[in-house]
Amino acid sequence: MSSKIPYKTLNNNTKIPLLGFSSWGWGDTVQGIIGQGVKDAIDLGYRYFDTAPNGIEQEVGDALYEKITDGTVNREDLYIVGKLWDPKVFHDPALIKDAVLSTLRNLNLTYLDSYILQCPEGDLQFVDTWHEMEKLVDNFVVKSIGLSNFNEKQIDHLYTSARYLPVTNQFDCNPYLMQVELCELCKSKSLAVTVYNPFGSSTLLEDATINNLAQKYRKTAEQILLRYQIQQGHVAIPIAISKNKLKENMDIFKFDISKSDMVALGKLDRNKQYTSFSALSYVIIDAKSLSIDKLNNFFSFFHK
Ligand SMILES: NC(=O)c1ccc[n+]([C@@H]2O[C@H](COP(=O)([O-])OP(=O)(O)OC[C@H]3O[C@@H](n4cnc5c(N)ncnc54)[C@H](OP(=O)(O)O)[C@@H]3O)[C@@H](O)[C@H]2O)c1
Question: Which Pfam families does this entry report, sorted A to Z (predicted)?
Answer without folding.
Answer: Aldo_ket_red
